[in-house]
């Protein structure tokens, strides 16, 4: 994202808790301001992307004293939708404007400048930052008022979680049946089962060259995905809406963490099936046996 912004001709001031992201940004031509308040003081638009809700709250609190009147703060983090109105109020009280704009597409889309952005907030504020967002996105969708972007993102995450659960089971079953996973991948790619998880996260080493499984399981860690699924479940609970596959997926993430996969990409749930983890398979069998129909 940094490289795309600089390539588009934007002057970029940066700050981060860790030196890794800063050093990479400096190598691309960014300016290190260190403190969030200093970044805000030098910026017409502030872009924020951190892992969790408390991180966003802390960074916004730190940068608020440096905000100039009319500065637009754009939060690209994926966090609890219920927290966003409070974040907006914090920024507005400091004289700024706020757009919550979680992104989707992962590292590959970021490198290609093809992220999808779900923007919640005032239309005028989104239009004010559209040129900047276009530097690293292929699509910016105005989803509605503040909080709607996060809700849309979590619904998308729900779909992707279900995909990865199905892919883990399919390739686990295929392994048990003695099938070639590469052949299964070819079949599914050309069939109704084709989806992002099949193209990007088959949990078998060597099947998809760019997948986490083929690259030491580097990607979006299990522990981070646990938090994302917890946000989905909290959202569903707040609307008294039952989720079945998401709760199963969330439990499998616990099993993966317990098996030592917490720092690996979340597609490592597939290893539980591939390695015939007895606790996982027993739990899945018991869950399937106790599910009742709506009429029952």
Automatic annotation (TrEMBL):
Assigned keywords, A-Z: NAD, Oxidoreductase
One Pfam entry name: NAD_binding_11
GO MF, one annotated term: NADP binding
Domain 3-hydroxyisobutyrate dehydrogenase-like NAD-binding, chain residue ranges per copy: 147-273
UniProt similarity note: Belongs to the HIBADH-related family.
PANTHER family documented for this protein: 3-HYDROXYISOBUTYRATE DEHYDROGENASE, MITOCHONDRIAL, 3-HYDROXYISOBUTYRATE DEHYDROGENASE-RELATED
Name of the protein in its database record: 3-hydroxyisobutyrate dehydrogenase
């Amino acid at each position: 994202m940094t490289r795309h912004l600089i390539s588009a001709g934007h002057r970029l001031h940066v700050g981060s808790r860790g030196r890794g992201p800063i050093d990479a940004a400096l190598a691309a031509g960014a300016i290190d301001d260190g403190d969030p308040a200093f970044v805000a003081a030098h910026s017409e638009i502030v872009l924020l992307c951190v892992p969790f809700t408390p991180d966003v709250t802390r960074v916004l609190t730190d940068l608020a004293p440096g905000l100039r009147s009319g500065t637009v703060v754009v939060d690209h983090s994926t966090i609890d939708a219920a927290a966003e109105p409070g974040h907006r109020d914090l920024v507005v009280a400091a004289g700024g404007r706020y757009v919550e704009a979680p992104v989707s597409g992962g590292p590959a889309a970021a490198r290609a400048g093809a992220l999808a952005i779900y923007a919640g907030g005032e239309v005028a504020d989104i239009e004010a930052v559209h040129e900047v967002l276009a530097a690293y996105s292929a699509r910016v969708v105005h989803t509605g008022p503040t909080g709607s972007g996060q809700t849309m993102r979590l619904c998308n995450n729900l779909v992707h979680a279900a995909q990865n659960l199905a892919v883990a089971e399919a390739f686990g079953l295929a392994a048990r049946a003695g099938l070639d996973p590469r052949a299964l991948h070819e079949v599914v790619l050309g069939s109704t089962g084709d989806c992002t998880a099949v193209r990007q996260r088959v949990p078998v080493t060597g099947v998809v060259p760019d997948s986490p499984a083929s690259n030491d399981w580097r990607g979006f860690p299990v522990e981070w995905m646990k938090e994302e699924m917890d946000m989905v479940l909290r959202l569903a609970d707040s609307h008294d809406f039952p989720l079945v596959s998401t709760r199963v997926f969330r439990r499998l993430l616990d099993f993966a963490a317990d098996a030592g996969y917490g720092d690996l990409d979340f597609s490592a749930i597939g290893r539980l099936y591939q390695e015939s983890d007895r606790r996982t398979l027993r739990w899945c069998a018991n869950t399937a046996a106790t599910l009742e129909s709506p009429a029952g």
